[in-house]
């Protein structure tokens, strides 16, 4: 995801789906609101 020129990479060493709760916590810590990352 890229926002305001900042790229956020979510590493996934297991190559499966990342649980939504982990994604939400990481994005929250990055200051990205759910409305921002759900945009098309």
Verbal overview:
The protein has two helices and two strands, in the order E-E-H-H. The N and C termini lie close together (12 Å). The protein has 40 residues and is an alpha+beta fold. Strand 1 and strand 2 form a beta hairpin.
Topology:
Elements: E1 2-3, E2 6-7, H1 20-29, H2 34-37
Antiparallel strand pairs: 1-2
What would the keywords be for this entry?
40 residues
Please, how many helices? 2
**Coarse morphology:** globular
Uncertain spans:
none
- What is the helix fraction of residues, given as a range? 25-40%
Q: Cα distance, first to last residue? A: 12 Å
Number of strands: 2
How big is the Rg? 11 Å
Structural class: alpha+beta
Strand order of the largest sheet: 1-2
Give the topology string: H per helix, E per strand. EEHH
Report mean pLDDT, rounded to a whole number.
76
Give the quaternary arrangement of the chains. Answer: single chain
Largest sheet: 2 strands, antiparallel
Strand content: 5-15%
């Amino acid at each position: 995801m890229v926002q305001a020129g900042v790229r956020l990479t979510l590493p996934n060493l297991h190559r499966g789906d990342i649980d939504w709760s982990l994604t939400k916590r990481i994005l929250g810590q990055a200051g990205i609101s759910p409305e921002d990352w759900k945009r098309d």
